[in-house]
Design brief:
By secondary structure, the chain is mostly beta strands. The protein has 2 domains: 27-97, Immunoglobulin-like (Sandwich); 104-271, Glucose Permease (Domain IIA) (Distorted Sandwich), CATH 2.70.70. The protein has helices at 2-20, 119-136; strands at residues 36-41, 48-51, 54-61, 64-70, 78-86, 89-97, 104-107, 157-159, 164-167, 170-171, 178-181, 187-189, 194-202, 206-214, 217-227, 234-235, 240-244, 254-261, 264-266. The strands form 3 sheets. Strands 8, 11, 12, 13, 14, 15, 16, 17, 18 and 19 form a 10-stranded antiparallel β-sheet that branches.
Amino acid sequence: MKNNLLTLSLYIFILTSAVTGFALDLPAESTVPGGVAIISIQTLDKPNAFFYEKKVMVLGSSNNWKAIVGIPLSAKPGIHNLQVKSEGIETNYKFEVANKDYETQYLTIKNKRKVNPNEQDMTRIIKEKKLISKAKSHWSNNEAISLKFIQPAEGPYSSPFGLRRYFNEQPRKPHSGLDIAAPKGAPIVAPANGTVINTGNYFFNGNTVFLDHGQGLITMYCHMDSINIEEGIQVKTGDIIGNVGLTGRVTGAHLHWSVMLNNVTVDPLLFLAQD
């Protein structure tokens, strides 16, 4: 009888883990600007969650949902609200964002147009911005999402996420990704299963690929030498998507890797599986 009960308990545990899917597959939580908050939601049916009117990823099962919230670098320290709608009821889940001071980086760009674009460049940049914004805000209702990534290129980290940047002594937006130093031609692989939703050559980003992993989780790969895939292609973890290069605004060959949740960039290191 005891053996039957043990077997039944083990079956229920395995079944529950399979249904929730995310039990051991969450990113590291870091409730700072540029970090990730993980909010538990107890509702019977899957809720809809929004952070500053942007839809948020929700995974799990009845009465055991997790909202995976990307916190923008512009977020102020203090109490913030996650708006949750379920079964006709609207609830605010409060969580606190702590302060984080990111380091400052000064870079010298030889091509001055990459710092101060001319009128023709600006026409191109404005056109490209619409395409890039569309990719970053893409949403697909995928439930089988991996939130633990492999590193997309081999090499040391040359510029961490969130740096306050100056190009030719001029202030620019904070660094929106993680730079991985690698030689030109080194392979770039998909860090998790996904679908190619955009490829292109952009003024600042150079040769670029966007992957959709589901529910607002988007990854971006910039300054590539070559792109080996096309829009609409589904990739698996470890598939080669292109090669490291030095296209766009760069000081040398490297991969710029960005991770986005609910249309804000967050620290990619939070998604890397720890040994």
